[in-house]
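Researcher: Next sequence.
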Amino acid sequence: MNHSTRSFRFMARFCRLVGVAAMAWVIAAALTPPSVIRAADPSPSPAPVPAGNPSAPVYVMSLTGVVDNVMAGYVEESVKRASNETSPALIITINTPGGSLDATQRIVSALLEAPVPTIVWVSPSGARAASAGTFITLASNLAYMAPGTNIGAASPVGSGGEDITGTIGEKVRNDAIANIKSIAETRGRDVDWAVSTVDKAVSSSALEAVAVGAVNGIATSLEDVRRKADGQVVHVGAAPVRVDIADAPFVDLPMNPFQSILHLLSDPNIAFILLTIGFYGLIFELQSPNFVTGILGAIALILAFIGFGSLPLNVAGLLLIGLAIVLFVLEFTVTSHGLLFVGGLICFVLGAFALYTAPGSPTAPDVAVATPLIVFMATLTGAFMLLVLVTIVRSRRRGLAYAGAYGAGGTTTVPSGSNGVVKRALTPLGVVYTVGEEWSARSASGSEIPAGESVRVVGQEGLTLIVEPASSFEPSGQQVTT
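Model: Next structure:
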């Protein structure tokens, strides 16, 4: 019995010890931090590999002027070419006042998805990456600025979005803020500064942009860009790569001729010049129909409106220029003593200054016609109109002084006996030139009078002259013999 009791007690003690040990293990596990429990030795990340072929050319492209769809296509083609030739990087020099929102989004997408590292350099000194240029610069893997340049939203968009009115405008503004925020986060740039360029129209100098982390540094030349970008680690897609351009040759990659011509049309000054030339062509065509000036004027107007498609055109400015042309045309036919000319010149100048509106979206360009160009075109127009006015006044005075000799001088009657020349053969109707202008005419006898024949007016029926060959009025000579 004693033996059984001792065995029972031993088993009870053993069970208690096991229970205490188990409880202690559970408590220890509960008090141990989860990170310690799941701790594992991380495997070292692989070293970034060089991007592309270090000996392949680094293409250098230039984005100058208003951002339009032509420029967007140029960027897309250049990125594709750099990728096909395994370039170690693509360098983009930029100097733009802004441009189309659609074109900006195309360029940003091309840079974010580019299979090669992209480097943007705001240059030369005095250049800017404004409005749309800010989006493009932030979308690059590396961004540098030349001394004396600036970056930011040049468009006057207030912090409350007062320049973007209405529901649609607010949606555009909010979308732009979200877009530039996403770009800054993707490229590791200062998000608050990026948002402020849209929300508060913040613009920063090169030094300020470097200080806030908007760009990577200051570069004075392409070689300086090479030195500072070489060896930098960037993300192309999801993989880190090392920029290796120390020995890569620079190769310029300009727009093709067709792209260059189309992009030139988006220059605000070129578009204004084409508009003026187009209106001049129409004036000459109305004054003296010849088809040539009319066709050239129409072509110039079409090219001007192609350029206006990428610019913030102000319809009021366009209407003022159109009104100026109407007043100039009326000056040819209405005796206003120069008042129509002066009014037309004033409308022309005001229309030129108001031809482009202030930006209405965060990417739109802040452009205007250059003041020296307006002064030159207004002076040229004024000189031309003064010449026309002097000619008209002299013609009218001559007509009033010699009303019988000049049918265009205020009378519709051509004196009998006036001499003329047949311009279009009379069969029997035709055209003769007499008293300083052309008249419809017919032969008095009904016979044909060929072109170039001298005639004399013998009568008039309305605006049709009755003529006879001048030879029929010459006295017959008598032969004198000795």
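Model: DSSP finds 15 helices and 17 strands in the chain. Residues 371-401 form the longest helix (31 residues).
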